């Protein structure tokens, strides 16, 4: 049976995928865009709000800003994101560079509706050259329970290349897979990874991709839902948009998809 249904017998939770256009190195502008989109998503009932990979910094920030700002501004950044989650009453998944005392990571950081950080996923298949050479690969699969959604398996972009990581994540018990991405079509672009993950695990895959120009042209990059090995819904646009997905956690079904 397909994991996409129009049934209304069970309650649904709305998930918002923010298909944004982060500008490389323009932290203030990117934060403003995130803030506006998060408020709009929450006003339309989203309980889980997701940003693309490196939404705070843009993908190619390193050559413009370096990396010192990551640790220096992290406390203030996390306080801002936590306050935004509290204000909107939603769970916020923020794509951002993250610093520890010993390393830098390309992370998805999860802020609960009370503003607390409840977990993070650090990109495992991080490139060791070019625009991602600043980041240290993560070392473990990530599953985080999210109130009203279920147990969510997290991935950042090329993490979905790894069948082993997908299998290890699924083995932890997953209701839904979620990936942030900065993944443009073309050479080395997506080639069925999301669809295969949905087929092999029997769980839907939601992808929050991006648009705009950075180190690549992302205007044709797709945010999507993959279900049972096929793309059930997708969106690409040159302008930022929000995709809302209605999710029925009890039956692990995607009930509806709309873009504004």
TrEMBL record:
A single GO molecular function term of this UniProt record: hydrolase activity
Keywords attached to this entry: Hydrolase
Entries under CDD domains matching the protein: nitrilase
PROSITE patterns in the record: CN_HYDROLASE
Domain CN hydrolase: 13-249
Record-linked InterPro entries: Aliph_Amidase/BUP, C-N_Hydrolase
Classification via Pfam families: CN_hydrolase
Listed name of the protein: Carbon-nitrogen hydrolase family protein
């Amino acid at each position: 049976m397909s994991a996409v249904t129009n049934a209304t017998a069970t309650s649904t939770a709305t998930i918002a995928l923010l298909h944004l256009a982060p500008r490389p190195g323009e932290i203030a502008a990117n934060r403003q865009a995130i803030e506006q989109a998060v408020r709009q998503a929450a006003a339309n009932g989203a309980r889980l709000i997701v940003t693309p990979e490196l939404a705070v910094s843009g993908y190619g920030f390193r050559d413009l800003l370096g990396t010192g700002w990551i640790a220096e501004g992290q406390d203030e950044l996390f306080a801002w994101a936590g306050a935004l989650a509290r204000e909107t009453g939603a769970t916020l998944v923020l794509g951002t560079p993250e610093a520890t005392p010993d390393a830098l990571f390309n992370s998805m950081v999860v802020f609960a509706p009370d503003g607390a950080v409840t977990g993070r996923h650090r990109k495992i298949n991080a490139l060791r050259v070019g625009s991602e050479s600043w980041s240290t690969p993560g070392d473990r699969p990530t599953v985080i329970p999210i109130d009203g959604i279920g147990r969510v398996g997290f991935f950042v972009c090329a993490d979905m290349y790894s069948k082993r990581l997908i299998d290890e994540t699924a083995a932890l018990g997953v209701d839904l897979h979620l990936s942030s991405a900065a993944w443009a079509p073309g050479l080395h672009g997506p080639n069925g990874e999301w669809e295969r993950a949905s087929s092999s695990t029997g769980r839907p895959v939601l992808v929050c991709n991006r648009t705009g120009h950075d180190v690549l042209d992302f205007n044709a990059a797709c945010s999507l839902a993959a279900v049972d090995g096929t793309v059930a819904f997708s969106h690409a646009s040159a302008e930022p948009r929000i995709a809302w997905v209605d999710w029925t956690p009890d039956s692990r079904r995607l009930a509806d998809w709309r873009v504004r």
